[in-house]
Amino acid sequence: MTTATIVSAIRTESAYQQLLRLAQDAKLIASSASLLSWDQETMMPDGGVEYRSRQMAMLAKLAHDHLVDPRVGDLLAACEGDRDLMAAPHGDAAANIREIRRDYDRATKLPSDLVEEMAKTASVAQHEWAAARKESSFSRFKPWLRKNIELLRRKAECLGVPRDGEPWDALADEYEPGMTAAQIETLFTPLRSRLKKLLDDLLGSSKKPSNAFNEIALPIEAQKKFVRFIAEAIGFDFKRGRLDTSTHPFCGGTHCNDVRLTTRFHDVNVNDALGSTMHECGHGIYEQGLLFAHVGTPLGESVSLGIHESQSRMWENQVGRSLPFWKWLYPKLGEFFGSATKGLSLEDVYGGANVVEPGFIRVEADEATYNMHIMIRFELERAILRGDLDVDDIPETWNAKYKDYLGLTVPDDRRGCLQDVHWSSASMGYFPTYTLGNLYAAQIFEKVMQEIPDLHRQFEKGKFDDLRHWLNRNIHAHGRRYLPDELCQRVTGKPLSADPLMRHLEGKLRPLYGA
Amino acid sequence: MTTATIVSAIRTESAYQQLLRLAQDAKLIASSASLLSWDQETMMPDGGVEYRSRQMAMLAKLAHDHLVDPRVGDLLAACEGDRDLMAAPHGDAAANIREIRRDYDRATKLPSDLVEEMAKTASVAQHEWAAARKESSFSRFKPWLRKNIELLRRKAECLGVPRDGEPWDALADEYEPGMTAAQIETLFTPLRSRLKKLLDDLLGSSKKPSNAFNEIALPIEAQKKFVRFIAEAIGFDFKRGRLDTSTHPFCGGTHCNDVRLTTRFHDVNVNDALGSTMHECGHGIYEQGLLFAHVGTPLGESVSLGIHESQSRMWENQVGRSLPFWKWLYPKLGEFFGSATKGLSLEDVYGGANVVEPGFIRVEADEATYNMHIMIRFELERAILRGDLDVDDIPETWNAKYKDYLGLTVPDDRRGCLQDVHWSSASMGYFPTYTLGNLYAAQIFEKVMQEIPDLHRQFEKGKFDDLRHWLNRNIHAHGRRYLPDELCQRVTGKPLSADPLMRHLEGKLRPLYGA
User: Which of helix, strand or coil describes residue A263?
Assistant: First the structure.
């Protein structure tokens, strides 16, 4: 190296360090907001609502100011011009720079008056949606949905619709970087027909798994101890996290060493609390698996909603609804629930976790029908954004698809197109990440099973460390180093496909239903 | 009004509105930090410590940047030059402007490198103090205390030592605006001799109140229900606040509609939990009594630590250790503690709340000896800051005063001059606010008793609304409109004096001790 090269290297090194510090500063603010948000859902007294929204707006503004600081643009340009830094495309520096660029471009492409108008409109729209759902009155929600769609189209335009792409792609990129509607369609089309066939066979069979376990009332305090025991068993680290109760379970917190999960409890059906807990634990184990050394930078962040969801679904479904898991857990039920669960057989509890039953409500759906709910939403929002579907026609189209895909006659809009919060908060491009999660989970889990052939025998003994460590190494530790599709290819050796999920569902459900 | 006057009025009106908005913005950040701080003491998993300190530092920096924003200085100058705004010296605008000026001057007078050095030094000093206290090794703490004192002297110099004043005054002004060491001395000197006489008489008497209630082990869950019941009864509003558990009880939260109290529990001695709870409820009722209309501005903030402490002490002592209070509560003990408290008489429980016993530890002291602990600390820190006492001589001087004032031989520095965190965190000028709180409480309570003569009969019926509403109106609602001594004069008609506290203590304790 010549002196000039060294001086230049030091200067650029310093640009990179400065860039990281600015990113870390923005994250310190955003993560503080995240703690306030968790607190609002779990701890805050009702009286705090109004001032809390002012605090949140202030922190959002400060975080955004940091994100679009012109120094970030200058430092990015300096770093991107440095060949040494960018030499290894997936090296620490190049990956961080690429992802900070992604965040910076997204943040700076959106004019602040649009961001503000979207936030304000969404706030009223959510309120009107909640009232409209209560009244089951789509017409009450319609003007706000129309306004949201108009703003979403403007947002997509500002972000830039890719050549050969469509507005949906620009929006979805925020949740699943690089994913397009065309790719989703390629995945969903075969999935839909194969799921339809499977559901027809299952529901046409005279054999059904027992639902007895789901019908027993169990004390909430016992359920709490039960799910906490399982959260600890599968390896959620309570020295670096909490588990509380909230109306809607979620995974929040501030960073990998402070992860806050919530779950919920009903008097009847401990499987709901168990499923919610394992689901959120999956999210939480991912968050805890991010590396503190990279905290506040892209390498210390989760890569996409789809991959995040794959972690929650894997623990919820591939682990928590498997026979080996129940072989371990079944003999322990008495310790928590005494005589209440005494009459149940292993078949009852394993079957109870795997009952398939088409219903109107997405969030209550079983593992097999769930994806149908997602496909319907994806098809609708894609058509809406393309201009192929008018807001007026949403209920009719929604109901027709429910009839077609799930054989159900939707009784009212409350249980139909008004059931989800997403569109009211101006989120489109989000729904498919749930099914992507199911697909990734199945594909990744097949790979784990190949690499750890006795995994199911480990589950039978209540051992989950090998699975967790494998996920830590192969998924979590990478943060945003690879894009989701790169990560999938790298980890499983193949692009994402519907095959593993169908194998998982068919392999488990057909025997249970004798179909 | 001429057009020019109107235009000028609008312009200045707008300067005041802008000033308020900047103050409110700074408070949104500071109150977010306050929530993070509460969370750290009550909810945060251990793993979160390191990142939390980074978040807190970031928010502190942002809040400070807002506080010293040069626009604040410009707007203050514009407002102060507006005769209409400043016409009524205790009107909303004039009071807010005066207090924002106080905060702005204090913040801008301190160079940021001094603030940073103090924070860094205090952070190490607190750590070293904790270790030194554990080892009872004053020499370990000495270099850090010396460093803190040097920084405190520099701080006092930057803030400006008042003419005829001393460094202590400049520091104390942060906690008790306008209070000086000379005024404290005038209050404390007669208090000390009268307390000494009272203590000699009480401890020399052969009659003593029963300590039986303090020696009964009671289940923590029952204690929790008990103190929650009392918090609700005296009027802490749980729709606008919470009560949790922490090692050191405190009152936190973010604003009047979200007040977070903590208390603590021991297996034995429910009076500790009760006293802590009523004390923190007193702080909390003050905070809840601030007006939401003024949130984020000085008129929506508490006026001083001394007045704050008067509210906590009044509910803890004037209410919670009074005979009428126990006449109401005594018959209810069985509802919470079953047979465990069955053998106790009313005299046992009232007496148990009023045992006087000199001890080494300030935070465990009873109502009468407590003030002696404070006087000793005040005399020492005043002498230290004047340069009349060297750090080397602190333990000896401390121990001599404990012998003199409380008749105790301090066994080691752990139970002596190393017991409090204050000096390690570079807080001097703070301690006297505890005794000021006791003095204000007694003087204000005498006034309430004059205005509501049947107050004690109300306590006997478990009615505390009249007292709380009186405090709301006369103390809380004013925020920082008056300085503490103005408030005292306005509310009680007299300057602060030691007489009411001595009347309170003598009137209660002499009969109990037959002295």
Answer: strand
**What was the pLDDT predicted at B12?**
53
Using CA atoms, how far apart are residues A395 and A391, in angstroms rounded to an integer? 8
Domains in chain B, number: 2
Separation of alpha carbons A149 and A160, rounded Å: 16
Are A1 and A103 in a shared domain?
yes
The model's pLDDT over A352-375, given as tens digits with 9 standing for 90+, comes to 999 999 999 999 999 999 999 999
Amino acid identity for residue A267 in this structure: D
Alpha carbon of residue A352 to chain centroid = 25
A203 touching B (Cβ < 8 Å): no
Q: Which residues of B264-284 are buried (b: 16+ CB within 10 A; e: fewer)?
A: ebeeebbbbbbbbbbbbbbbb
- Residues in chain B with CB shorter than 8 Å from the CB of A54 are 28
The Cα–Cα gap between B125 and B139 comes to: 13
- In Å, what is the CA distance from A88 to each residue of A75, A84, A324, A491, B509? 19, 8, 43, 19, 79
The reply to whether A140 and A53 lie within a common domain is: no
CB contact under 8 A, A32 and B31: no
Out of A28, A46, A258, the one facing B45 most closely (by C-beta) is A258
Average pLDDT over residues B221-236: 98
Instruction: Work out the mean pLDDT of chain B and round it to a whole number.
Output: 95
Residue A10, pLDDT above cutoff 80 = no
Beta strands across the sheet bearing B241-245: B241-245, B258-263, B251-255
A125 with A192, same domain? yes
Question: On the CB side of B498, how many CA atoms lie within 13 Å of its CA?
Answer: 18
pLDDT digits (tens, 9 = 90+) for B40-88: 999 999 999 999 999 999 999 999 999 999 999 999 999 999 999 999 9
Contact of B413 with B137, CB cutoff 8 Å: yes
Report whether pLDDT(B5) > 90: no
Q: With a threshold of 0.90, does the pTM exceed it?
A: yes
Decide if A280 is catalytic.
yes
A156 shares its domain with A56: no
B47/A258 touch (CB, cutoff 8 Å), yes or no: yes
Which of residues B109, B144, B170 is at a domain's end? Answer: B109
DSSP of B254-280, one letter per residue?
EETTEEEEEE---SB-HHHHHHHHHHH
d(CA B67, CA B78): 17
Q: Indicate the pairing of strand B258-263 with strand B241-245.
A: parallel
Residue A5 sits in which domain range?
1-109
Is A114 inside any structural domain?
no
Of the candidates B59, B158, B181, the residue with the CA atom closest to the CA atom of residue B105: B158
Closest CA to B498 of B374, B410, B414: B374
Q: Do A125 and A103 share a structural domain?
A: no
A51/B241 touch (CB, cutoff 8 Å), yes or no:
no
A36 assigned to some structural domain? yes
Give the residue from B89, B109, B129 where a domain finishes: B109
* Domain match, A449 and A304 both: yes
Please report, for the domain that includes residue A324, its CATH number: 1.10.1370.30
Task: Tell me how close the Cα of A237 comes to any Cα of chain B, in angstroms.
Answer: 10
Judged against a pLDDT cut of 90, whether residue A5 lies above it is answered with no
Contact check, Cβ <8 Å, A62/B62: yes
In this structure, are A43 and A168 located in the same domain? no
In angstroms, the CA B478 to CA B291 distance is 8
In a domain, A469, yes or no: yes
Chain A CB within 8 Å of residue B479 CB: no
Placement of tokens 């002297």 in the chain: B153
Strand extents, DSSP E, B401-452:
none
Consecutive H or E run containing A255? strand A251-255
